[in-house]
Design goal:
Pfam families: Aminotran_1_2. InterPro entries: Aminotransferase_I/II_large, PyrdxlP-dep_Trfase, PyrdxlP-dep_Trfase_major, PyrdxlP-dep_Trfase_small. One of its GO terms (molecular function) is pyridoxal phosphate binding. By secondary structure, this protein is α/β, with parallel strands linked by helices. It has a domain at 82-219: 3-Layer(aba) Sandwich (Aspartate Aminotransferase, domain 2). The protein is 38% helix and 11% strand. It has helices at residues 2-7, 14-18, 27-35, 63-75, 88-99, 117-128, 143-151, 171-177, 200-210, 225-228; strands at 111-113, 134-139, 155-162, 168-169, 182-185, 217-219. Strands 4-3-2-5 form a four-stranded mixed β-sheet. Strands 1-6 form a two-stranded parallel ribbon. Helix 7 links the parallel strand 2 (134-139) and strand 3 (155-162). The longest helix has 13 residues, at 63-75. It is globular.
Amino acid sequence: MENLWSKLSRRENEELNASTDITVTDRGTLSMLMQNINPEDQRPVLSLSHGDPGAFSSFRTRHIAEQAVVDALRSAKFNCYAPFVGILPARRAVADYLSRDLPYKLSPDDVYITSGCALAMEVILTVVASPGANILLPRPGFPNYEARCVFSHLEIRHYDLLPDNKWEVDLEAVVELTDENTVAVLPVNPGSPCGNVISYEHLKMRWAVTGWRLGWVVTCDPTGTLQQSN
């Protein structure tokens, strides 16, 4: 067994490592900063980089949501493995909710429920990846997108967000970067790390300029059946 382990390669994926340069959203950097706060300083510290509101007592989950999970557990109707796309009642609820603001009605078959954003990125990028394909990512952006694109062998092209214009997308750059091999343009809304919220007018203009249509609705709800059924 010792000889076997000595023969195994321990090389790292250098291409993947090179894609994850430190950015303002890098968790290692943020953790380092938080760990070096002077413990004797009594002033409160607000972690504006923390994306999970559940970590703070001021964002307590509503009682009605907690009770829904309890009811689902006691019903014994959801003590099983969920379909990998999400259970039908959950997908129907998401489709109905999103259809309220659309000129057309979504079907439950248009919804794919994933366990968090990381899995949503993996599913979508795996579907669109093909030899010679490229994808447009925002700059500044979130490093996980780039790492996942490299893993799927997608060529990455960056379009800029304009700081003097509320971090809106540079649409001219998007048009210039797009070609017949562009399989997706990634809009992050609300934006990370800039915190920008794209206006409806600007978002509509972006899709009109690039000629893209949204094909799937991907939600980041947990895939556990109990959580889906509440």
